[in-house]
Write a structure and sequence with these properties.
The structure holds 2 protein chains of 2 kinds.
Chain A: E1 3-5, E2 10-14, E3 19-21, E4 24-26, E5 31-38, E6 44-50, E7 56-58, E8 64-68, E9 73-78, E10 87-95, E11 104-105, E12 109-114
Parallel strand pairs in A: 2-12
Antiparallel strand pairs in A: 1-4, 3-9, 5-6, 5-10, 7-8, 8-9, 10-11, 10-12
Chain B: E1 5-7, E2 10-13, E3 19-24, E4 31-38, E5 42-50, E6 53-56, E7 65-71, E8 74-79, E9 88-95, E10 105-106, E11 110-114
Parallel strand pairs in B: 2-11
Antiparallel strand pairs in B: 1-3, 3-8, 4-5, 4-9, 5-6, 7-8, 9-10, 9-11
Classes of the chains: A mainly beta, B mainly beta.
Chain lengths: 115, 115
């Protein structure tokens, strides 16, 4: 079975400071990992993904995420947060050997960036 | 590309009425997913289709919910009869299962209010 956990319901940072949103996963094989962002009254938007290769992946809006197999983590990071980054962030996983097409999403982390 | 299209964007109805939500996936995508999002339960997968065939409907809450995908460019989610506890935002998402990564692209959602 595949699953993800986002241990923090909320993350609060000041504008200009680094932002980290945590995600850990559980799969039986190897994972495909994703981050999505949801702005108020909008659908989820795809930010970035890890499939294979370099453990550090870069995505939209200056976000990046680091895949750590030993810690089964895929934390989302941004070196300098903006007020406009305030949103709900979801981590998702798919187990590679699975013949299932669905992703498993975490519960989401609300990020608030204060000016 | 127009992205995933959902209609209506907002629906207000009275308890007991039938509600039909509509989705047009991204052209060329062959997997379609229906999700429900509430504050209490977060993001829940209701059902998904691959090549117009329902693959997993284990998330459908009860028999009042039904979904169809008559062709590759259209899907409906129907609630009959509707109840106040069905109030939520319903998202449709699509992906291409022939790719190696399976990222999903979400529509803007339908906000359903049942009074």
């Amino acid at each position: 079975a595949q699953s993800v956990a986002q241990p923090e319901d909320q993350v609060n940072v000041a504008e200009g400071n680094p932002l980290t949103v945590k995600c850990t996963y559980s799969v039986s094989g190897n994972p495909y990992l994703f981050w999505y962002v949801q702005y108020p009254n909008r659908g989820l938007q795809f930010l970035l993904k890890y499939i294979t290769g370099d453990n550090l992946v870069k995505g939209s809006y200056g976000f990046e995420a680091e895949f750590n197999k030993s810690q089964t983590s895929f934390h989302l990071k941004k070196p300098s947060a903006l007020v406009s980054d305030s949103a709900l962030y979801f981590c998702a996983v798919r187990d590679i050997p699975s013949t299932d097409y669905k992703l498993s999403f975490g519960a989401g982390t609300t990020v608030t960036v204060r000016a | 590309d127009a992205g995933v299209i959902q209609s209506p964007r907002h629906e207000v109805t009275e308890m007991g009425q039938e509600v039909t939500l509509r989705c047009k996936p991204i052209s060329g995508h062959n997997s379609l997913f229906w999700y429900r999002q509430t504050m209490m339960r977060g993001l829940e997968l209701l059902i998904y289709f691959n090549n117009n065939v329902p693959i997993d409907d284990s998330g459908m809450p009860e028999d009042r919910f039904s979904a169809k995908m008559p062709n590759a460019s259209f899907s409906t989610l129907k609630i009959q009869p509707s109840e106040p506890r069905d109030s939520a935002v319903y998202f449709c998402a699509s992906s291409f299962s022939g790719s190696s990564s399976y990222e999903q692209y979400f529509g803007p959602g339908t906000r359903l209010t049942v009074t």
